[in-house]
Design brief:
Rossmann fold; six-stranded mixed sheet; four-stranded antiparallel sheet; 10 helices; 275 residues; alpha/beta
Length: 275
Amino acid sequence: MTSLLLELDDVVVEYPAKGRGKEPFRVLHGVSLSVAPGETLGLVGESGSGKTTLGRAVLGLAPVTGGEIRFEGRPVSGLGRRERRALSKDIQVVFQDPYTSLNPALTVMDILTEPLLVTGVARAEAERRVQKLLGHVHLPQDAARRLPREFSGGQRQRIAIARALCRDPRLIVCDEPVSALDLTTQARVLDLFVEIQEATGVAYLFVTHDLSVVRHISHRVAVLYRGDIVETGDAAQVTEHPEHAYTKRLLLAAPVSDPERQAQRRAERLKAAAS
């Protein structure tokens, strides 16, 4: 039995090109990475790097045309719909936009009990679990009776996190889960992710474009550039002393609160781009 929770071995994802005779468009060029139980792997890259596609491949939402994805040593990239549904107990997702991922017509109680009820959990037990989850994500108990539109962006993301946690998953794919939030709310939600991991032992594949975010939450970091992993390593090493030129540009692009330091970074970034 493997000691790793998630393994990607030379994974390729490509889509058919529009027009006859054209080569398929390859998004991932043979990506290999792993996530251990209870670990956070930060997957960082700019828009178009393929990081969201990689997360979708793990979730079975993008076609794996080469290589293999394994969960606890078992191949999962070619599972059918029924097997994939069974796997969803162990692998959940938190999306970027908490509002569009929550049904606006349902109360928070209905949203959070739905995945439990469809697996046969009695309603009374499901509602008991939901009340407990609301406490875990620091939402008031009366939140269960309210609609998503009644909450702030940060609170809605807490609801989305609670939904991902309701079936006690082993791994959560986090697809830019704080990028739509203001900086203060980002910090609070990131702290919540860390707190939940310490309490439950859940692992995260944390997808983001921001190196400052992965520094805050990750144990290890993998940097994706145009469909290839260009740098991996300990989070502190990669985010403070990057080796690859692309990672250095990402670090310079991360905002800082000091205006003088921000101006210096902008100048360094422009210099790096010109060289």
